[in-house]
Amino acid sequence: MTRVPAVPQTPRSQTVLGGSPTEKALKRFLEGIPGVDTVGAEARAAGFNSRSLKTSTKKWGLDTIISMVDLTTLEGADTPGKVRTLAKKATMPDPYDLTAPSVAAVCVYGDMVAETRAALGDWHVSKRPDGVAVAAVATVFPSGRASLPVKIMDTKFAVSEGADEIDMVIDRGAFLAGNIGLVFDQIVQVKEACQRADGSYAHLKVILETGELATLDNVRRASWLAILAGADFIKTSTGKVQPAATLPVTTTMLEVIRDWHALTGEKIGMKPAGGIRASKDALRYLVAVAETVGEEWLTPDLFRFGASSLLNDVVMQRQKMTTGHYSGPDYVSVD
Fold it and tell me: Of 89, 156, 205, 235, which is the active-site residue?
């Protein structure tokens, strides 16, 4: 008789599955989750686009968006100079208006973590409550196609360099092939690899790459899987695959976060990434958050935007609201 393998037990899986969970039990739980009404999800997302915001609310929203941005550069041509420039922009998004908030984090490859921390200096989150964190992509971003030891090594290196947050990618091929236990195990072990020398942990954001999951049902199941395995945040995309973040996908993931909170009282963060470039679109995401999980999630501790060009547009819209006119083309930096 073939033994059904156990999956690593986490406090969260214990809550839902009990005992020593098996892969069979995990699959049974995920398959028992009700399917997503795709038409309904799209209609709900379209409804967020129709909300009218007062001027004061919009002004607050623009500042809130800035404070939630993970300012990102993830290119093979990244240099220390580019990272230093990005870190400066993160601390001072609008050099002509010092009342503009700093962003939440700068997101880079692991080999740029130390450079980013050094560039942030006294603006690093460890030195001030409104500081900027350093996030690093890991687990062989963006493909996630490597052996587990390589993924662990990738994560541990970024943490040892001083990363405050790790953005990992799941093995989408394994998930789509039904190897749920493998995906679960890898998230659990990457979470353990986020432990620092002092015993604390870097925050773990788990990227689902929803553009490759094909259906909202898969998005919902992958969201539950990531949370059960230990994710602090669930994230839509790497930004390297289209479609990236969309409102229907984000709303589906927010509903899982809402249901997890109702079940356990624990708050999980959310990060849509890729394709959100305009302020008006980002404001719709804030509406989706407020109406799906509640206004308590409208904080960088629980909601982020993975973006680069979005920040430029928000700064320009913010300046328009302050001065009554748009700035010239040289007003914001070109990333």
Answer: 235
Alpha carbon dihedral 234, 259, 175, 70, in 10-degree steps, equals -10
Q: Determine the Cα–Cα distance for residues 224 and 191; give it in Å rounded to an integer.
A: 16
**Average pLDDT of the residues of the chain:** 93
**89 an active-site residue?**
no
Residue 318 lies in a domain: yes
Quote the pTM value.
0.94
AA identity, residue 13? S
* Integer CA distances (angstroms), 296 to 60, 268, 291, 292, in order: 15, 11, 11, 11
Q: CA 268 to CA 254: how far, in whole Å?
A: 9
Asked if residues 125 and 132 have their Cβ atoms less than 8 Å apart, the reply is yes
Which domain, by its residues, includes 45?
11-323
CATH code, domain with 228? 3.20.20.70
- Structure tokens that stand for 110 in this block: 């692991």
115's CB contacts (< 8 A; 6+ apart) are: 80, 83, 84, 108
Count up the domains in the chain and report the number: 1
From the candidates 156, 191, 205, 271, give the one annotated as an active-site residue. 271
- For residue 12 the two structure tokens come to 């969260």
What tens digit of pLDDT does each residue of 207-260 get?
A: 999 999 999 999 999 999 999 999 999 999 999 999 999 999 999 999 999 999
Active site residue 235: yes
Assess if residue 249 is contained within a domain.
Answer: yes
Distance CA 9, CA 17 (A): 9
- Is residue 333 domain-resident? no
Catalytic residue among 154, 164, 167, 171: 167
Annotated catalytic, 271? yes
Task: Give the CA dihedral 292, 294, 295, 298, nearest 10 degrees.
Answer: -60
Whether the pLDDT of residue 269 is over 70: the answer is yes
Does a structural domain hold residue 170?
yes
Look-up of token digits 């409104």: 130
Q: Is the pLDDT of residue 20 over 90?
A: no
What is residue 207's three-state secondary structure? strand
Residues 6+ apart with CB under 8 A from 61: 53, 282, 283, 286
